[in-house]
What we know:
Elements: H1 13-33, H2 48-68, H3 72-76, H4 78-95, E1 97-99, E2 102-108, E3 111-113, H5 115-131, H6 142-161, H7 165-170, H8 174-180, H9 185-203, H10 206-223, H11 228-254, H12 258-267, H13 279-290, H14 302-305, H15 318-349, H16 354-378, H17 396-421
Antiparallel strand pairs: 1-2, 2-3
Amino acid sequence: MTLQQPKPSRIDWITIMLYYFFVVVGLLCIYASIYKETNPLIWDASQNYGKQLIWIGVSSFLGLMILLIDEKFFFAFSYPIYGITILLLILVLVAGTTVKGSSSWIEIGGFRMQPAEFAKFGTALALAKFLSGYNVNFEKDRKIQILSAGIILLPMVIILLQNETGSTLVFTSFIFVLYREGLPGWILFAGFILILLSVLALLVQPIFIIIALVLLAILFLFLVRRTRALILLTFGAVIVAGLMVSSIDYAFQNVLQAHQRTRINVLLGKEVDIKGAGYNVQQSKIAIGSGGLWGKGFLQGTQNKFRFVPEQSTDFIFCTIGEEYGFAGSLLFISLYILLLYRLLVMAERQRQKFNRIYGYSLVCILFFHFVINIGMTLGLMPVIGIPLPFISYGGSALLSFTILLFIFIRLDANRVNELRGTAD
């Protein structure tokens, strides 16, 4: 490994400033969510905000080290890093610690680490290196497509065995990376249809859905030019969809755990459980709604002070923003987060190296998934699956992994200037 500092002008300082803006907002929200007038010191290491302050310092140091490393290191060591994260995930299955029903933690002394968080950037690096290999044509080579899916599915399966459904679902966001590299659009469309049918199967009797599919198939064939191949393909798709719809109820009852089934039923309106599975979301919506237009002010949120919202410093951190800074503050926060995602997307698209571009898209997809799902579940629009809001939620493993994920890309982007100028660092 070589240490090589890029020129300051080549580093995207706007992205770093946005990163620190969100980190500081996160620290203030964590502080507000567990604030006690009898213990107002923000550097109290016995409290979550004090611990988060330490993690911010560690993350900043790690981010600096990443900026000093030669960008070729990340390409050369992509597979070893991926392998280490896989080994850590397997270690969790053997000697993991269970925290709040999830056996996804490794505990050493008083320090706890969640390898599933680090597997995200490990997978992003491995996928980027594989797809950027010499003579690799993802769009046309079926073998390459299968191996790419395998790189993504391996950590997903291991994490799912740890009973960490939320982190498992995050890896599905890599499908958009594959789409950018040539995955046929019909696969995305088919995935959307399957998700829609799965939701409908939980609301409507499967037989009615199957009848509707058959009628739609007949109408489709009536409106288009029919060929033998098209007829077989259409009814083949109906049969597959019908089998899937018929199996949804079995999977729902036998694969998901009781609390997961309850959360989905509450979200779909099939159950009302304000004091149970729906309590967190109900209190979160009350907190956000009580903020009004301008909010109650820093440390003035009553939902915060009286601890009405469980997990308020982690999964439901956004309701602190909504209560204390209101609709205006929430809109500003969301706008800046979208600005960060857009900026990263532009940075990814401008990369001349395929490895850099694929890694950049992986970063955007992971952050976007976390952002949409986390805020969606605090508003009651998404099921509660327990994933953090990047850079905002409390958690050392999450902050470290997102910092590594982001700063690797900032370092790769800094090298883009060298390629444009035809010079070397």
